[in-house]
Amino acid sequence: MLRHQSFLAFLLxxxxxxxxxxxSAVAIGWQVYDLTGSAFDLGMIGLVQFLPTALxxxxxxxxxxxxxxxxVVQLCEIVEGLTAxxxxxGAYAGWLTVTQIFVATFVLGIVGAFESPALAALLPxxxxxxxxxxxxxxxxxxxxxxxxxxxxxxxxAYAIAPSASxxxxxxxxxxxxxxxxxVRLTQxxxxxxxxxxxxxxxxxxxxRNNPAILGTISLDLFAVxxxxxxxxxxxxxxxxxxxxxxxxxxxxxxxxxxxxxxxxFLAHHTINRRVGMRMFQAVIVFGAATVVFALSHWMWxxxxxxxxxxxxxxxxxxxxxSLVQLATPDEMRxxxxxxxxxxxxASNQLGQFESGITAALFGAMPAAVLGGVGTIxxxxxxxxxxxxxxxVEKLE
Length: 396
What we know:
Elements: H1 5-36, H2 39-66, H3 69-93, H4 98-126, H5 132-160, H6 162-180, H7 197-200, H8 202-208, H9 211-226, H10 233-240, H11 245-268, H12 275-295, H13 299-326, H14 333-362, H15 364-385, H16 387-390
Helix pairs in contact: 1-2, 1-4, 1-5, 1-6, 2-4, 2-14, 3-4, 3-6, 4-14, 5-6, 5-11, 5-13, 8-14, 9-13, 9-14, 9-15, 10-11, 11-13, 12-13, 12-15, 14-15
């Protein structure tokens, strides 16, 4: 599949974009906590990123189905690059404030709201027929390589100068915009010439009427919403594990190391049976690894727990993405992708907000433990509520 030029360009674009996102996340998280020392403000980063997704859900999904998806992604990556360069300029000149960081974070949230549905809807049009699960695994693995090295680069660059980390992120985002322009589709996308108000909400209706898809998306929402311990990494890095920005980068990279190992396995050995049950089992392991990380005072154990967490999450991601994309007609993929992205963002960014609030009230360690236990409970409950999803046997 790597010989396929358009698929390779897609992988490079996604990887560069992931580099930019991860480097910016390290810099923003550390700088906000360094300026304020507040767990609440760390949680606010997630809320500020989530709000654009909630506000622009239906517009972003319709945009991905109405306009050329490559151009939507390209425009988003250009804006992401310029925003990172703005942060670099402000950090270098010394006038960057927490409020300005939050404003830039809000802009990045807008970018993500439009980019993710369009990017997800592109992959089925690029991957060869019958190979979506393998293409998803390879694509996830490529982005995980960036997720592994991105935080380390970001932490190292931040230790030199905060402006350096933002500047590097901006460069990667602009490279992503160039690569996505090289993609050529193997099958044409269905583009509608007109739109009605009902079209904007069609994605929600489609998800609601498909129990397996509804169960898949909502499982991710509630499980990761409670298990968002990674939002507390700056606190763990500085106050519990007593390491610095570079240590924070290592901690942020650890889930991606486990994820990369798992995607390498899945790229050669696809899950061909009991895929629904495998997804639930992966979420339970995710919750258990979160509890181990929460209780750890040793760097090596924390890194190991985060790596296992990342590996388990990858199994869930590959199954979830393949199931949703294969069950959705192309003309609906943008709008369904927007709904999916809302749930993913709610789980990650509202999970970050929830973790920050809980940590501010009870402390970082109790907050992370409660989140891991809650994730396990959600997986067990969803197995009962969505038997259709639990009994899914195959994807392709």
